[in-house]
Every structure is written in structure tokens, then in C-alpha cells.
Design goal:
two-stranded antiparallel sheet, 3 domains, globular, Glucose Oxidase, domain 1, 678 residues, Aminopeptidase, alpha/beta
Length: 678
């Protein structure tokens, strides 16, 4: 059955539609199809019509509320001392700035734009040129807000490295993660060179700037959703990709949207009749869609699963999300998934022949999911998710979010393979009677994450016992699910529809229970650190405690620099080193104090923040004092250590309580199963 669909895959169709998605642009020269913009809405209409052409059913424009961004232009010109004229095309971030035609500005260059760089410099009403490495140093919002507090008209950021490394002409765009009134634009290394050369001669230069960047809160845009109706309307498989973009966005994410439509088209043309309804969702506002939030991306997907279709929870057995699927991000392909799908996909991969021209080292499963794309928002809504992994290759440092993300870097072999692989995976999922979730990998990894804790602690002993028991229950339960699914597939292959239907019907309750269990552990066990990495709750506190204890030991030996190196790794305190207190506190408070609707998928995921700003600056002032008295700092860190230890104790108790409840939950499921039925 799976091979019958494969022959209808048309890569040429998908490639041409990916190019067609570039039709509508905010910026006529650079592209940009951004949240809530006219370009995004028109592109949504184009996708809607294409779904109609394919023959999808129940096509909807799901209205969602986002903060919108319309970037029309940013052009900067100046004349050097030799009378040579220059004109530059700039990129932009999601901030509000309109010059109302060409306007004169003074420009200064302030290295990396840290608090220290502003000393003795008046930047009020001026453009501030700075170098930035968002990948390896700090995000754009910190130097931008620093400039804003100093009264700068706008920050002009040069992506020195980290992103846009493909070429010195590369511009870059990322989510701003800050207030719209703190204004930022992007300039290439090549163009910045001419400005810097002029600024070597004079401390500031006059430039002409003409820009239109418009941000509006609470605007409407649309997720475009079409279906291939299954015989079971209460069970679904979701395929998702986002259609907003920076620049042309050919890889990110035109080819992904085109791929889900290509898969839909092949399934429709093959005549395959799914059991579960196949849902194809083109999501808006993935790149950005929320003013002044650390969690300002994946807005469209979050709105879809939490507000438009909360009813998908308990019905959708899997989300297959796609990002940059027409480029090889290494010699080995990866499927990144939630823990619970790892075993099923591992087994599925073993059945697949991997073409060497696409991935000479094959394909593997990795976990857990990350926050880079829509699959995280979807997973925490209770829908098990996966994504073709894209974050580990060089493309992210070179082409990603630049004007070099275009069709010149298209890999047809990779694109073809991903079409075939994920089409077969969709069908393999559809041909299960019970969602193939296995909780064992989750409990294994949780156990490993506890290894650095004192194993003699009572809660740890209990947790380890519970984890071992839960692994055993998980193994039993998944073995049962496998037997059910094997028998179901056998009947399907034999075209014994009556027996297949009987098995499917008999185990609806089990599927609901497994999905409910998945949703519970997402609520209880998935947390984020300040760098948006996914951890178990205790892991974050354990790392903090390790760093705090190292800092205390270093201070006892008067090793201040070593102590500061450890403090740098605690929560978001790296930003305390380089930016003023008001900046640091602003980007701390807006995470901890904003309402859920301004935090979205990050709500409640950050725990136990420690504000060490004053300690950092106290120690920095003592670095050159020889062997200064640091007893006060040691006492403060000891108090921090006590707070974190108490928090860890509370977290371990909560985890123990959850595991006990989950053990009862799984034991009850197993108790209901008739082991002799198959």
C-alpha cells in the first residue's frame, strides 16, 4: 500500500509550488512574508486555492490573533570624505520605525553595544552601529534595549559571525524578543565596512536613512488547514509547516509547505483511503508574531492548537512538522521527535532504504524535541510531535534567515527522499490500531539525568525505584500495543476489513489513555532553561547548584575570575556582565511577570530564577584588588545555594508524586487489557 502512493509523488510539482510561494512580498527587493502582513494573507489565500485544486476537504482559514509586522524598506546612504557616495539596502527586525521619507541622522560606531561601550558617548537621536554574534554571544534584544535606554534612534546591527556567514553581503533577520519601540535594523559586513572606515576618521558621520517598518498589535491572520477525511473522524494525523518567511524563505519554509501539499496530492491521486483523517496545516507567524516576548516565535501554531483547535488534543496521534527539508544538513539525516515516538520511528527506519546521494550515512532518531520550530508548541498541547532535524548543520550559520536562503541551494535528492520517507511514515502511522507511544525512553533519560544527585537521598531512592518500575510497565504496555498493531496490519493486508475494524474499535479507549498520558507528562516534566533548551525540571536546578558551589569554592580560594565564569552559566546571568541593570531586569521580568497570553508556549516553563547582577558587579570591581575580602559575596551565594537546594527538594517531591500517580495510571491501563485476546 505504501509503495502505491509513492509512485504518485511529483517533486517537480512541489518545487514549482515552493517558488510560487515567493509571489507576495512585503519588501519588493528583499522579500519578507511576515506575520499578519498583506503578503502573508495573500500567500495564505494562494495556499487555500492550491488545497482546493488538490482536492482536499473541509478547507478552512483558521483566524488567529497575532502582532503583525510589515517591513517595506530600509535604505541608508552616505558620502565619505573623498566624496564617494554609497547606498545600502538594510534588513530589519520586528520594530516600529518610519522616517516619512529620507531623513538625516548622525551615526556612531560602538563596537558590541554593551553598557561599557556607551560610556562618554551621546547617542540621543542617533543611529548606533554595532557588531553582533547572536549564535555564540547574546541575542539582539539586549544591545537594542541598551541603545533605546540611551536615547538612540535605532540600532544598526552587523552580523559579525554566528549567522549569515555565507557571504559578506549577507543580511540577517531573527526574532527581536523585545519591545517594538526599541528599534533595530540589519546591515551586511560589506556595507558596514565602508561606514566603519569613515567612522575611523570621525567619531560620527552623517547618513541619510529611509525606512518603513510597521508593527501593530492584535491583528488577524490565518492558518490554512485542509483534510483528507478518514473513516474515523475522531482520529487524526497532522502534517504542518509554516508559510511566513524572512527574505525569500525558499528552504525556510517554502519547500516544507510545498512538501506537505505534495504528500497530500500524492495520497489523493493514489486513491488511498485513510482510517485517520489526515490534516495538512500551513501555519502563519512561525518566525515571529508577538511583541515584547521572549517566546515570540511559533505564534501561529500555538494559537492553532491552544485556541482554535484545543479539541485536537486526544485526537491527533502525531504531528509531522517540516523545516528546511530540501537541503542536507549533514551526511546523516535525523528525525527529531518526542521521547515516546523514538522506538516506533527507530523500527520504521530499519525498513527504509536510504539513498546514498541524499544521506550517505543513513538516518537516525534523536530526541527530545527543541523549541526551534512549531513542533514544540504542538507537543506541549498534548500532540506527540516530530520534525526533520535541521538545526545541526552548517546551513544555520551560513544561509539561514538571509537572502541566500534561495533555490540556488536546493537539493533534489534530499527533497525526493523526504517526500517518500514521510509519506510512508504517515501511512505507517495510519495503519496502526493504537498510537505507538512508548514511555520507556522518557523514563530512561529521566533516570540518567538524576545520576549527578546524591543517590542516598530518600526521594532519589524512591524516584529511581519508580523509574525502574515505570520502565517495566512501559515495556509491557508497548509490547501489547505492538501485538495489537501487528494483528491489525495483518488483517489490513489480508483485506479482512471486518476483523481490522473490530480490533480498531476495541482499542479506542487505549489510544485515548496513551494520548492523555503523553499530555500529562508534557505538563509535568517539560521545562526550559533561559536559553530555550528543553530539560526535566530538576536538571535546571542541578546545573545551577553545580555552578553555585563551584563559584563558592573559587571565592574561598580568592579566584574571582573563576567564580565569575561559573556565575556566568547560572540562569540568564551572562547578561549581567555586559549590560546595565535596567536591561537585565527588563528581560528577566518580562518572562516571569507577564500574563500567559504574552508568554505563550514559555508560560510556566522557567523555574527558580536567581538574580546575581549585584554579585557579578561587586566581584568584577574586586578583580584587580589582589586578594580582596569576598566574604559578603560568599554569604550571598551560600544563601542562593540554600534557595536552590530547597527548590530542588520541592521539585524532586513533585516529580516523585507525579511518577507515583503515573505508575498507578499505567498499572490501571495494563489491568484493563485482556492479555489473552490476541
Amino acid at each position: 500500500m505504501r509503495d502505491q502512493v509513492e509512485k504518485y509523488i511529483d517533486i517537480h510539482y512541489a518545487y514549482e509550488f515552493a517558488k510560487k510561494l515567493e509571489t507576495y512580498k512585503c519588501n519588493t527587493k528583499l522579500g519578507f512574508r511576515t506575520a499578519g502582513s498583506r503578503a502573508e494573507i495573500l500567500t495564505g489565500q494562494l495556499i487555500y486555492k492550491e488545497m482546493q485544486q488538490i482536492g482536499l476537504e473541509h478547507i478552512t482559514k483558521d483566524e488567529i490573533t497575532v502582532d503583525s509586522w510589515e517591513f517595506q524598506k530600509a535604505q541608508l546612504s552616505f558620502e565619505d570624505l573623498d566624496g564617494q557616495s554609497y547606498q545600502f539596502e538594510l534588513g530589519a527586525y520586528q520594530t516600529q520605525f518610519q522616517t516619512e521619507g529620507p531623513q538625516k541622522f548622525s551615526m556612531v560606531y560602538l563596537e558590541k553595544g554593551t553598557a561599557e561601550d556607551y560610556k562618554g558617548v551621546d547617542v540621543k537621536g542617533k543611529l548606533v552601529l554595532v557588531d553582533i554574534n547572536q549564535r555564540d554571544e547574546w541575542w539582539i534584544n539586549f544591545p537594542v534595549y541598551e541603545a533605546y535606554l540611551k536615547g538612540a534612534a535605532a540600532l544598526i546591527a552587523v552580523q559579525a559571525s554566528g549567522y549569515g556567514e555565507i557571504d559578506q553581503t549577507a543580511l540577517n533577520a531573527q526574532d527581536i524578543a523585545g519591545p517594538s519601540e526599541a528599534v533595530a535594523f540589519s546591515i551586511s559586513q560589506r556595507d558596514a565596512y565602508y561606514l566603519k572606515e569613515a567612522l575611523k576618521v570621525r567619531s560620527e558621520i552623517e547618513v541619510t536613512f529611509d525606512a518603513i517598518s510597521i508593527v501593530k498589535p492584535n491583528q488577524k491572520t490565518y492558518n490554512i488547514v485542509g483534510k483528507i477525511q478518514g473513516t474515523d473522524p475522531d482520529a487524526m494525523i497532522l502534517l504542518s509547516a509554516h508559510y511566513d518567511s524572512y527574505f525569500e524563505g525558499f528552504q525556510d519554509d517554502n519547500v516544507a509547505v510545498a512538501m506537505i501539499l505534495g504528500i497530500a496530492r500524492a495520497i489523493k491521486q493514489s486513491g488511498y483511503k485513510p482510517k485517520r483523517t489526515l490534516v495538512f496545516a500551513a501555519m502563519a507567524a512561525e518566525e515571529w508574531g508577538l511583541i515584547n516576548s521572549k517566546y515570540d516565535w511559533s505564534t501561529g501554531a500555538y494559537e492553532e492548537v491552544f485556541h482554535v483547535h484545543p479539541d485536537w488534543k486526544g485526537k491527533v496521534i502525531a504531528d509531522l512538522n517540516f523545516e528546511l527539508p530540501a537541503h542536507a544538513h549533514g551526511k546523516k539525516d535525523k528525525v527529531r521527535c518526542v521521547y515516546e515516538y523514538a522506538e516506533f520511528i527507530d523500527a520504521f527506519i530499519k525498513e527504509i532504504k536510504i539513498p546514498e546521494e541524499a544521506y550517505p550515512e543513513g538516518i537516525e532518531v534523536t530526541y527530545p524535541i527543541e523549541t526551534w520550530s512549531d513542533d514544540f508548541s504542538i507537543a506541549i498541547a498534548g500532540i506527540p510531535s516530530m520534525v526533520n532535524d535541521f538545526s545541526s548543520g552548517s546551513f544555520m550559520e551560513t544561509h539561514y534567515h538571509s537572502q541566500f536562503d534561495n533555490k540556488d541551494f536546493y537539493n533534489e535528492a534530499v527533497y525526493t527522499f523526504h517526500h517518500k520517507f514521510y509519506t510512508k511514515l504517515v501511512m505507517a502511522l495510519d495503519q496502526t490500531a493504537v498510537v505507538p507511544l512508548n514511555f520507556m525512553r522518557l523514563f530512561e533519560e529521566m533516570g540518567r539525568s538524576l545520576c549527578s544527585i546524591d543517590q542516598s537521598l530518600m526521594d532519589i531512592k524512591v524516584i529511581n525505584i519508580l523509574l525502574n518500575e515505570l520502565k517495566g510497565l512501559s515495556k509491557q504496555l508497548y509490547a501489547y500495543v505492538q501485538r495489537v498493531n501487528k494483528q491489525y496490519l495483518t488483517y489490513l493486508m489480508q483485506e479482512n476489513t471486518e476483523k481490522a475494524a473490530e480490533i480498531y474499535r476495541d482499542y479506542r479507549w487505549l489510544e485515548k489513555q496513551l494520548l492523555a498520558g503523553f499530555a500529562r507528562e508534557q505538563d509535568e516534566l517539560v521545562r526550559l532553561n533561559w536559553h530555550d533548551e528543553v530539560y526535566f525540571p530538576h536538571e535546571i536546578i542541578i546545573k545551577n547548584l553545580q555552578c553555585i558551589k563551584k563559584a563558592i569554592l573559587a571565592l574561598e580560594e580568592k579566584e574571582i575570575i573563576e567564580a565569575l565564569s561559573s556565575i556566568y552559566q547560572i540562569d540568564n546571568n551572562k547578561y549581567a556582565f555586559l549590560f546595565e541593570k535596567q536591561v537585565y531586569e527588563y528581560f528577566t521580568d518580562y518572562v516571569l511577570c507577564q500574563p500567559i497570553d504574552r508568554v505563550k508556549w514559555g508560560a510556566g516553563r522557567i523555574i527558580g530564577h536567581e538574580d546575581l547582577f549585584d554579585i557579578v558587579h561587586s566581584l568584577k570591581a574586586k578583580i584587580k584588588m589582589g586578594r580582596p575580602n569576598v566574604e559578603n559575596e560568599i554569604r550571598q551565594l551560600e544563601e542562593v545555594c540554600r534557595r536552590q537546594q530547597n527548590l530542588l527538594d520541592d521539585i524532586l517531591k513533585d516529580e516523585k508524586d507525579f511518577l507515583e500517580a503515573f505508575y498507578s495510571y499505567m498499572a490501571e491501563i495494563l489491568g484493563k487489557l485482556d492479555r489473552d485476546k490476541l
